[in-house]
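Async update (no meeting this week)

Hi team, since we skipped the sync, here's where things stand on the single-chain job. The sequence we agreed to prioritize is pasted below, unchanged from the tracker. I ran it this morning and attached the output directly underneath so nobody has to dig for it. Comments welcome in thread, and please keep replies under the output.
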Amino acid sequence: MVVFFGEENAVSRGAKIKALQGFFNEPEGSMPKALTMLEDGSLGGKGSENLIVSGHGNQNNFGAVGITGDKLFATFKEKGLTKKRFAKIYLMGCNVGLQAQDNSVVENFAKDFARCVNTDEDTAGIKVYAPRGILTFTMEDKIVSGQTVKTATAINVACPEKTYTLSEGLTLVNPS
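Output:
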Protein backbone atom coordinates (compact mmCIF):
# COMPACT_ATOMS: atom_id res chain seq x y z
CA MET A 1 0.00 0.00 0.00
CA VAL A 2 1.35 3.43 -0.94
CA VAL A 3 0.56 6.48 1.19
CA PHE A 4 1.77 9.87 -0.05
CA PHE A 5 1.85 13.50 0.95
CA GLY A 6 3.49 16.65 -0.28
CA GLU A 7 4.63 17.49 -3.80
CA GLU A 8 2.18 19.88 -5.37
CA ASN A 9 2.95 18.76 -8.94
CA ALA A 10 0.47 15.90 -9.34
CA VAL A 11 1.99 14.74 -12.65
CA SER A 12 5.48 14.27 -11.18
CA ARG A 13 4.05 12.78 -7.98
CA GLY A 14 2.02 10.28 -10.02
CA ALA A 15 5.08 9.21 -12.03
CA LYS A 16 7.17 8.78 -8.87
CA ILE A 17 4.45 6.78 -7.12
CA LYS A 18 4.04 4.54 -10.16
CA ALA A 19 7.80 3.88 -10.17
CA LEU A 20 7.73 3.04 -6.44
CA GLN A 21 4.76 0.72 -6.97
CA GLY A 22 6.72 -1.08 -9.67
CA PHE A 23 9.86 -1.35 -7.55
CA PHE A 24 7.94 -2.79 -4.60
CA ASN A 25 5.78 -5.05 -6.81
CA GLU A 26 2.53 -3.51 -5.63
CA PRO A 27 -0.53 -5.21 -7.14
CA GLU A 28 -1.53 -3.87 -10.55
CA GLY A 29 -4.22 -1.23 -10.16
CA SER A 30 -3.63 -0.62 -6.43
CA MET A 31 -4.51 2.97 -5.68
CA PRO A 32 -2.17 5.14 -3.61
CA LYS A 33 -3.80 7.06 -0.77
CA ALA A 34 -3.13 10.61 0.35
CA LEU A 35 -2.19 10.73 4.04
CA THR A 36 -4.93 13.30 4.62
CA MET A 37 -7.53 11.01 2.99
CA LEU A 38 -6.85 7.88 5.09
CA GLU A 39 -9.92 6.90 7.06
CA ASP A 40 -9.78 5.70 10.66
CA GLY A 41 -9.02 1.99 10.66
CA SER A 42 -7.85 1.96 7.02
CA LEU A 43 -4.41 0.62 8.02
CA GLY A 44 -5.87 -2.20 10.11
CA GLY A 45 -6.68 -5.73 9.07
CA LYS A 46 -4.54 -8.77 8.37
CA GLY A 47 -2.01 -9.70 5.75
CA SER A 48 1.68 -9.27 5.08
CA GLU A 49 1.80 -6.04 3.15
CA ASN A 50 4.42 -3.34 2.75
CA LEU A 51 3.47 0.21 3.70
CA ILE A 52 5.31 2.61 1.37
CA VAL A 53 5.25 6.24 2.49
CA SER A 54 6.19 8.76 -0.20
CA GLY A 55 6.85 12.46 0.33
CA HIS A 56 9.45 15.16 0.75
CA GLY A 57 11.76 14.71 3.67
CA ASN A 58 14.85 15.79 5.51
CA GLN A 59 16.82 14.53 8.47
CA ASN A 60 14.23 15.77 11.00
CA ASN A 61 10.87 15.85 9.22
CA PHE A 62 8.79 14.11 6.61
CA GLY A 63 6.60 16.09 4.26
CA ALA A 64 6.47 19.75 3.39
CA VAL A 65 4.50 20.44 6.58
CA GLY A 66 7.32 19.09 8.78
CA ILE A 67 5.84 15.96 10.34
CA THR A 68 8.12 14.47 13.00
CA GLY A 69 8.60 10.72 13.50
CA ASP A 70 6.35 10.56 16.55
CA LYS A 71 3.61 12.58 14.82
CA LEU A 72 3.61 10.34 11.74
CA PHE A 73 3.51 7.26 13.96
CA ALA A 74 0.59 8.72 15.98
CA THR A 75 -1.29 9.42 12.72
CA PHE A 76 -0.69 5.87 11.46
CA LYS A 77 -1.78 4.40 14.82
CA GLU A 78 -4.98 6.45 14.61
CA LYS A 79 -5.55 4.94 11.18
CA GLY A 80 -5.14 1.41 12.55
CA LEU A 81 -1.47 0.55 11.88
CA THR A 82 -0.74 -2.96 13.12
CA LYS A 83 1.88 -5.66 12.68
CA LYS A 84 -0.99 -8.00 11.79
CA ARG A 85 -1.22 -6.27 8.41
CA PHE A 86 2.17 -4.72 7.71
CA ALA A 87 5.53 -6.50 7.86
CA LYS A 88 7.61 -3.58 6.54
CA ILE A 89 7.35 0.19 6.29
CA TYR A 90 9.42 2.05 3.68
CA LEU A 91 9.90 5.78 4.35
CA MET A 92 10.57 7.09 0.85
CA GLY A 93 11.73 10.68 1.29
CA CYS A 94 15.07 12.46 0.94
CA ASN A 95 17.46 12.23 3.89
CA VAL A 96 14.91 10.67 6.31
CA GLY A 97 17.35 7.80 6.88
CA LEU A 98 20.53 9.85 6.50
CA GLN A 99 23.73 8.04 7.46
CA ALA A 100 27.30 9.20 7.81
CA GLN A 101 29.82 8.15 5.15
CA ASP A 102 31.10 5.29 7.34
CA ASN A 103 27.51 3.91 7.34
CA SER A 104 26.98 4.79 10.98
CA VAL A 105 23.46 6.03 11.53
CA VAL A 106 23.11 9.55 12.81
CA GLU A 107 19.99 10.70 14.65
CA ASN A 108 17.31 11.10 12.00
CA PHE A 109 13.60 10.98 11.22
CA ALA A 110 13.63 7.26 10.43
CA LYS A 111 15.23 6.37 13.79
CA ASP A 112 12.65 8.46 15.66
CA PHE A 113 9.80 6.80 13.73
CA ALA A 114 11.28 3.30 14.16
CA ARG A 115 11.60 3.84 17.93
CA CYS A 116 7.87 4.55 18.09
CA VAL A 117 7.07 1.49 15.95
CA ASN A 118 9.25 -0.82 18.03
CA THR A 119 8.05 0.33 21.46
CA ASP A 120 4.34 -0.05 20.73
CA GLU A 121 2.73 -3.44 21.43
CA ASP A 122 0.56 -3.33 18.28
CA THR A 123 3.42 -2.49 15.90
CA ALA A 124 6.60 -3.92 17.47
CA GLY A 125 8.32 -6.15 14.92
CA ILE A 126 7.44 -4.14 11.82
CA LYS A 127 10.71 -3.48 9.98
CA VAL A 128 11.34 0.13 8.98
CA TYR A 129 13.49 0.98 5.94
CA ALA A 130 14.65 4.35 4.60
CA PRO A 131 17.05 5.67 1.95
CA ARG A 132 20.48 6.50 3.36
CA GLY A 133 20.68 9.75 1.36
CA ILE A 134 18.78 11.81 -1.21
CA LEU A 135 16.08 9.90 -3.07
CA THR A 136 16.28 10.78 -6.77
CA PHE A 137 14.08 9.93 -9.74
CA THR A 138 15.17 10.09 -13.37
CA MET A 139 12.20 11.62 -15.18
CA GLU A 140 11.40 11.43 -18.90
CA ASP A 141 8.56 12.61 -21.09
CA LYS A 142 7.22 9.83 -23.31
CA ILE A 143 4.60 9.94 -26.04
CA VAL A 144 1.80 7.45 -25.40
CA SER A 145 -1.18 7.41 -27.79
CA GLY A 146 -0.27 10.91 -28.96
CA GLN A 147 -0.11 12.29 -25.40
CA THR A 148 3.00 13.35 -23.51
CA VAL A 149 3.30 11.32 -20.30
CA LYS A 150 5.84 11.95 -17.54
CA THR A 151 7.58 8.72 -16.48
CA ALA A 152 10.13 7.94 -13.79
CA THR A 153 12.66 5.63 -15.46
CA ALA A 154 15.03 5.11 -12.50
CA ILE A 155 15.10 5.52 -8.72
CA ASN A 156 18.43 6.12 -6.98
CA VAL A 157 19.80 7.23 -3.62
CA ALA A 158 22.49 9.91 -3.88
CA CYS A 159 25.09 10.03 -1.10
CA PRO A 160 28.32 12.02 -0.88
CA GLU A 161 30.43 8.92 -1.53
CA LYS A 162 28.39 7.54 -4.45
CA THR A 163 24.95 7.14 -6.00
CA TYR A 164 23.25 3.85 -5.17
CA THR A 165 20.44 2.04 -6.94
CA LEU A 166 17.33 2.04 -4.75
CA SER A 167 17.86 -1.57 -3.70
CA GLU A 168 21.42 -0.73 -2.56
CA GLY A 169 20.50 2.64 -1.05
CA LEU A 170 17.77 1.43 1.30
CA THR A 171 18.78 0.64 4.84
CA LEU A 172 17.05 -1.22 7.66
CA VAL A 173 16.59 1.30 10.45
CA ASN A 174 17.88 0.26 13.85
CA PRO A 175 16.00 2.43 16.37
CA SER A 176 18.57 2.10 19.15
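Quick observations from my side:
The two ends are 27 Å apart (CA to CA).
DSSP finds four helices and nine strands in the chain.
Reply here if anything looks off.
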